[in-house]
């Protein structure tokens, strides 16, 4: 009897609390819808922009096998972008609008892609660290409350774990190779370590959206929790590779059963978010250029389809 | 699956076959490399995926040919030695596939010209007497059929799309058609292998290829180019200036750090 008296919002929260998935046709609060569109489209944009730093090495991969794996990996990212845009479309967002928001700078994408890829070892670090961090962020999303997003993430995560393994394997091959290769690996780790710690977002105390997202079960762990997990996972892997994490404060802490580590340079983080990373202009510029230069192709496809339809109706 | 035993050849034929398989390998690799340059820059996400897909098919095919070429040569060279440690004048791909991507229309026209030849070539090779070449062709012809469908559909869309797309596709045809003739003009190696029955007779493939082009161009409302002077030389190592830059990039790591494992 009592359930009849619950408001729509209360019924919605009750479903969330009972871990019942929300589906496209279900009622949902506007703010939940908006938060999801923002998060999913941001995630889709990250896949799209994320093609560029690795795409930068496809034409220079050091062997045919590596070239083939790297190309397949970057292609997977395009595929992830596609599933995610489709998931956002189930919430009423249009792909054209989402892309327009990316191109105007209104929508964000993961800041990690605003760092340059300077050596082959960066392909190792992007797979091992960046995809490793992405997996920690994304695995909980396979249980996120919105059905289409959760299902898209199941596919994404399967492929991401393969990406991470190939990244680690690139690092391992470098570390077992000639001294010049090991130096290349260490140099890349030095550049990528801190930016990947930033991928988990601001400290919990500075993350205003976390509480609501946790409550809606869109998010399942806080930024700081995930960052700690990442460090705990990666420090032993770096040791296994014979590499040194560029943080003198890293130290095992038996009391918390995890590593202590130094503080991220938040000034750098906010600068890159604001558009002042080394590659912000290039990355967004490349996306805008591809979109603008592709306009005539998309128009031609539409015009041709319309002509066909017209002809079919005349027969 | 039953694997047929490798075909045995006379030493002379084996040398010629090595050259021919290397030519096929270089062709697939260079085209794959060009297509891979599109990755992340395609006109729409779905076509970005399609271009990468096709690039991956060609890359896979190239690797099969390089591995077979290395085997035929029997000097202990690997697929990577053959791809990364030969200079432009040693590369044996036809001129068409090394041409820069240009705009999407140029990429489509280059692809359509090559796909038309490639599909018909593989159809013949899969029934040829060399079991390994036939096996590679049998696997690749399914992919080539899809590539040809894809590029044919785009020729039609662009030709019978908007004024701009028509202008662009006509421009691309005007600049690339001159490289079509080399594909079906046998060089000395191909002639000898044709005589030995190992390489199909290109003249016999032409009617079907021309019929396909005529069908697609008609639907695209485009005129089939006539009387174009045909360039050649790539299959004998005389390339356009574009190949040197492509190889500089492709071979950068292996040239900078010789002899390492990646």
TrEMBL record, chain A:
Protein keywords: Oxidoreductase
EC number(s) reported in the record: 1.14.13.149
GO BP terms: phenylacetate catabolic process
Gene Ontology cellular component terms for the protein in this record: cytosol
Signal peptide: none
InterPro entries: Aromatic_CoA_ox/epox, Ferritin-like, Ferritin-like_SF, PaaA, PaaA_PaaC
GO MF annotation: an example: phenylacetyl-CoA 1,2-epoxidase activity
Top-rank taxon, per record: Bacteria
NCBIfam families per record: PA_CoA_Oxy1 (TIGR02156)
Protein name: 1,2-phenylacetyl-CoA epoxidase subunit A
TrEMBL record, chain B:
A Pfam family per the record: PaaA_PaaC
GO CC annotations, alphabetized: cytosol
One GO BP annotation of this record: phenylacetate catabolic process
InterPro entries to which the protein is assigned, alphabetical: Aromatic_CoA_ox/epox, Ferritin-like, Ferritin-like_SF, PaaA_PaaC, PaaC
Protein name: Phenylacetate-CoA oxygenase subunit PaaC
Gene that this sequence comes from: paaC
